[in-house]
User: Fold this.
Amino acid sequence: MGFLSSLSRNQKEAIGLLQIGTFLEYFDFMLYIHMAVLLNELFFPKTDPHTAALLTALAFCSSYVLRPFGALLFGYIGDHIGRKPTVIITTMMMALSCIVMASLPTYAQIGITAAWIVSFCRIFQGLSSMGERIAAEVYIVEITKPPAQYPAVAMCSVSATLGTVLALAIASLVTMKGLDWRMAFWFGATIALVGSVARTRLRETQDFIKAKKYRKTNSSINERVSKKTSLCSFLINLTWPLFFFFVYVYCANILKNQFGFTSTQIIRNNFYVSLAQLLSFLLWMYLSNKIHPLRILKWKLFPVFVLVALIPSFLINNESAFNLFLLQIIVIFLTPDSMPAESILIKHFPIFKRVTYATFIYALSRALMYIVTSFGLIYITEAFGPNGLFIIFIPTCVGYLYGILHFEKLENKNQKQHQVHTQLLTKPNEFKLTG
Assistant:
C-alpha cells in the first residue's frame, strides 16, 4: 500500500469510499452465485442431471445476459450526468434485489413463479454490479496519475474479491451450521444500504467537470473511439469469465457428480479457492506499482498456455478431489485478466464515452462468454469430453495476447509523445536544433 503515500487526503478518502461500495456490491452479487448449488434446489424444480445443469446455467447466465443493456443505461448516466450518481444508484439497486430475494417463497410454496422471480432478481443484480464496478474504476482513473493510478484502480478488483470471499464465508457458515439462508441476504441488503449512504460523500471528478465546461465553449473536442482499441479491450475482457466459470462452476459440477460432494462441501471448497484468488490479486496490485501492468499480463499468460494444454488430460485421468482442488487453485491464481491494467484500458477511451464504452465492452464480454461457457461446455464436453475445452480456451488466450500487444503499442506511442512534449517545455531551443 506504499503507493497511497503519494496521494492526497481527498484522493484517499474517495478511493476508500469506492472500495467499500465495490466490496459491498460484490458481496451481494456473488452471494447467490456461490450458494447456487443450495438455492437452485429451493427455487427450481428437481430434474435429471442434464436438465439440472441447464437450469443452473440459466440462473447463472441471467445475471449477465442483459448486462450490455445496463451498460448503455449507466454509461449514459455516467458520461452525461456524472460518475457519482452512477455508483450511488447501482448500490441502491443491489440492496432492493437482496430484500426481494430474502423475502421470496420457495418453489415448493409458489411453484415456477419462484424461479422466474429469482432470475429477474439476478438480472437486476447483474445490471447493478455492472454500472458500479466500471464507474468506480473510471472515477479513480480521473482523480489519480500513474504509477499510483495502477494499484489504486486495481484495488477495485481486490475489493470485489474480498466481497466474494465474505459471501463464500457466509454461505459456508449458513450451510454448515444449518442457519437460515435468508439471513445472509438480509445482511447483504443492509450493508448495501450503508454503502449507498456512504457514497453520497463523494465529489464529482474534476476531469469530468472541466471537460463539461470545455465542451460548452468548444464543440470540436475529440470523442472518436478507435474500433481496434475497442476490439482489443473486448478480447482482453473475454478471458476472466471463461476461467472463472471453469474454476467455480465447471469444477464444482465435477466435485458433485464424480466425487459426491454435497452443497456444503462445494461451498467450502470454493471459499478456499477464493482465498487463492484474493492472494493473487493482492500480488498483482502490489507489483503494478513497480512493474508496468501490461508486462505483468504477459508474464501471466505464458504459463497459462502450458496449463491450458494440460487441463484436458488431467481431467480425463484424475481420480482425486484434492488434485482437482489444486488445479482450481493454480488456474485461479494465474487466470489472465485485465487486472492490474484496467486503468490503461479505460484511459484510452475519450472522457465523454469512457463509462459507456468501458462498461459496455466489459458487460458484452461477460454476457457472451458466460453464455458460451454455461451452455456450450455442457454440449461440447458431452461430445468431445474434456478435450472440448481446447475449442474455447485456445482462441480466447490467443485473442488476449493480441489485445495486450495492441495496448503496449498505444502506451509506447503515448510515452514518446509525452517525452517530446516535455522537451518542448523544458528545452525548446535544444529541441529545435536536434529535431
